[in-house]
Give the backbone structure.
Amino acid sequence: ALPYRREQEGVRGEQHRWRPDSGEERFRVVAALAHGIQQKGYERSSRGSLVQSWEQMAGYLPSAWTPAKKDGFLSWLVGPAGVLVDRSDEKLSFTHLSFQEFLTAWHLKETLEGDEGRIALCEQRKGHVHWWETLRLWAALTHPDRLRGVFDVLCNDDQSGLWLGGTFLADGLLDEQDVTYWAQRSAPFLAQISTNHVDNCLAAWRASRQQKYKDILQKIWHEAGKSHKNWLDCLRLLSRLDSVGLPPWDGHHAPGLGLFLSALNQTPSEDKMVAAGRLLNGVLPYWPGWSECLLLQIWPGNRRSWGLTGQNLLFSYDEAEFNLTAPIVGQLYSEQEKRAMNVQARDWARDLARYLARDFGLSEDNVNHLTFTFIEFLQPNRLSPRFIFASRAEELLPHTPPEWQPELRLFQAACRLSFEQNGDPGPFRDAMEEYDRTRQNDLPLWPTLARLVARQLTDGDRQYLDETIRHPEHLPPPYAEAVRFWLRGDLLLLDDKEVTLNDLLGFELPYWEEMPDELVIDWEKEEKPEGE
């Protein structure tokens, strides 16, 4: 009905189509049209096909043309040329985004003159990734000799320009010398937190078929990775290599990284892997590959937190940077900072973490690694794993070996009671009786830990905990290693020697602690001045 109505109105029908006789002129005009639309449209929105009215489209056509010619040319672009689409809302857009961006790139190539103009273009658009595809097409249309000056300037900006220049190389532009220079410049920044510019550049390299160029990247980035002494930097660079489709390097000079990577990829069993694995498992409430040691994640107490912090420091820095014969606390914090932390940290962190866990950690839409990590780092008392066991046990059961499902149900009841301090212990006692009937493991560690979390310890439990933490060697592997490193807080040094947490800190912490009281702080209540 719409074409018929337009035909009745005497506009945009087949008899009204018009085009210049010169094909060169037609191409030049439609390229200017695409550039005009994109230049204005991308200022208001992200990358995509832009929609304009017939009148708006006509505004980008040559001013010397009459309205009838402009309208006829647009009709020709919609009809025989097939470049534009006439939508049902009586507006126009390019048939495909690739048409719009290629024509824009061609217009830029034809109208920009000299290094100054080309550099100005990239400097203006480099921070806007929705322009990158157009700039890559423009670079491909530009002679390499005219592109090198632009590339050199872009590489001086490690925020966005360096990565835009990298996409040019991924498309096979310039030569191997430029690729070598770019790989050396980019390597240090790949070990830092990623940005949208970095991700877009690496995506271009992943799709690239320039294998010779990729071989250069692999060689230089591997050498950079081997020189890193910080395990987190190494992991980031390994992630970037993987995103490009390049293999990891062999041999790691970063302290503890080899052990840490092993703990990432398999369930740790050897004592060294268990020690290194706490760098991961101190922040996530589960492990790659199921292990019953996951149940130890809810263990309360400061030793676990100090052990995680100490291992992280030892694996993140050169041992020479820390004096392991002096108390490490004194090296990290001033006396004033320590006093302030002692006064405020416990109440503030635990209460804030509780609300974060309830609002975010338990939301089905937000349960992810980042959420768990965020919550875990804010609190010292295993809050998010307790929420996981209390509210998600039924979802965890299908992923739990049958012989360990009784423990999971027991800890669900224990964790629920832990959040209802002074609540009814009946459901927990019923769960303990059910556990005694169905358990397939006779290690006393699990029911004792459940009673610790539920605040239902007996005198016999306290004696068992004290003896177990002091002498974990009586336990079978891997529990002996997990208790030694995770709960007692022993540390693995860079030379594979071990040190106790007491020796590292310079003072003695309790070997185990009762489950702390649940705190409820009224933040709305105003503090009254002393004396009132």
